[in-house]
Amino acid sequence: MEKKQLSFRIATEKDLDKIVHMLSDDDLGSKRERYEYPLPDSYHSAFHAIASDPNIELIVACKDEEVVGVQQVTFTPHITYQGGWRATVEGVRTNSSIRGEGVGSELIRWAINRAEERGCHLIQLTTDKKRHDSIRFYERLGFTASHEGMKMHL
């Protein structure tokens, strides 16, 4: 059987259903996402805000034409590091039917390359401390837990 080619592109609104499905398809995501038909308007509003911001890229990974992964990469200028830019990767998910096939690794490598293209000095991400497999995954790709992150839900 021929292995399908993996490609990456900017997400379109037509991809939103598949994206939300992937975001909701695990224990943690199922508690915070609302995957239903039709999708809540909040997802469409967020998509339009992301799509209109030149410093945010919502990227999908595709095998042929099928969306099998997603990530959001945000580019932010900072005064620190002499006015350097950094990339933040969030919302990384792959279709549960193909997890373990390397799509997640390729998504992260794509983000690293994109951050370098944009002149970033640093790429960062967070993952929930309950996602032990994800932590090991990111460590295998060269990320280190160098800082303690904090959040406040509003």
- The average pLDDT value, as a whole number, equals 93
CATH superfamily: Gcn5-related N-acetyltransferase (GNAT)
Largest sheet: 5 strands, mixed
- Terminal CA distance reads 49 Å
Helix-strand string: EHHHEEHEHEH
The total count of helices amounts to 6
Structural class: alpha+beta
The overall strand count is 5
Strand order within the widest beta sheet: 1-2-3-4-5
What is the beta-strand fraction?
Answer: 25-35%
The low-pLDDT segments are none
Q: What is the gyration radius calculated from CA atoms? A: 16 Å
> What is the percent of helical residues?
25-40%
CATH third-level topology: Aminopeptidase
The level-1 CATH class: Alpha Beta
- Outline: globular
Quickly count the domains: 1
The CATH architecture can be given as 3-Layer(aba) Sandwich
Detailed description of the structure:
A five-stranded mixed sheet has the order 1-2-3-4-5. By secondary structure, the protein is α+β, with helices and mostly antiparallel strands. The protein has a single domain (6-140), classed as Gcn5-related N-acetyltransferase (GNAT) (Aminopeptidase, 3-Layer(aba) Sandwich), CATH 3.40.630. The mean pLDDT is 93. The radius of gyration is 16 Å and the shape is globular. The chain has six helices and five strands. The longest helix has 15 residues, at 103-117.
